Amino acid sequence: MQSAKALSHPCVAHRGWSGGAPENTMAAFRLALTEPSVRWIELDVHLSKDEVPVVIHDSTLNRTTNGKGKVRDMTAEQLSRLDAGSWFHPTYAGEPVPMLEQVLAFARGRCRLNIELKEGALDGGLLVRRVAGLIRAYRMDDEIVLTSFDRRLIERAKESAPNLRTGLITDKKPKGLVQRLQSMQASFLSIDHKQISASLLRETEAAGIRVMAWTVNHPADLARLASMPEPFQICTNYPDRWLAAVKEGICR
């Protein structure tokens, strides 16, 4: 049975268990689900040249694959043949760039997904429609939240799929933030962990908005956040560190 602390601060595996496997790969997602306390996985989605949602953080291939150039200039089949694992460790050589559909099939009924929409305004509407269509096909509306830094994408998501939960990502805490979320019909806030405070959590809770703090990797930051009584999600590259912080909080 999970502790009250764990339940009030659900663990979100950032790009999968990206501290132990190459980010945004099936290897990282499989590793994340070896920890029973992981309740959510966060991942990033772009469109391929042939309009297939693919799971990768950057708009370019250079950092996390053996390819070069822009994601949108390659087809899904071409992307699937790239090596997205060797950069992390030779053990993961040949790990491919996954399609979003693969991740949905893997996670359905096992773990909830926070899908960050990464496209810019030019292709954003198409990305939203393709992602929403897959979610509908897998009947996962209740298992997913769509998030983005781009307010326009969130508004388009709400137009395309009114039943889907949506959220804004921000690294700041501007005045009127909750009102901005309400005007977008967003019920989720993904915010830099440095901006988390008791007053913000009280305000969001009163407005029915769930909060996720990102990306919390240092043990001291994890311990501080895990000790807060207010409920919110903690997003980390290291679910094992999250678990240690929660256990430490229980023993105090």
UniProtKB/TrEMBL annotation:
Origin superkingdom: Bacteria
A UniProt-annotated Pfam family: GDPD
Domain GP-PDE residues, every copy: 9-246
Single biological process term from Gene Ontology: lipid metabolic process
InterPro entries hit by this protein: GP_PDE_dom, PLC-like_Pdiesterase_TIM-brl
GO molecular function, one term: phosphoric diester hydrolase activity
Coiled coil region boundaries: none
Protein name stated in the entry: Glycerophosphodiester phosphodiesterase
UniProt organism field: Cohnella xylanilytica
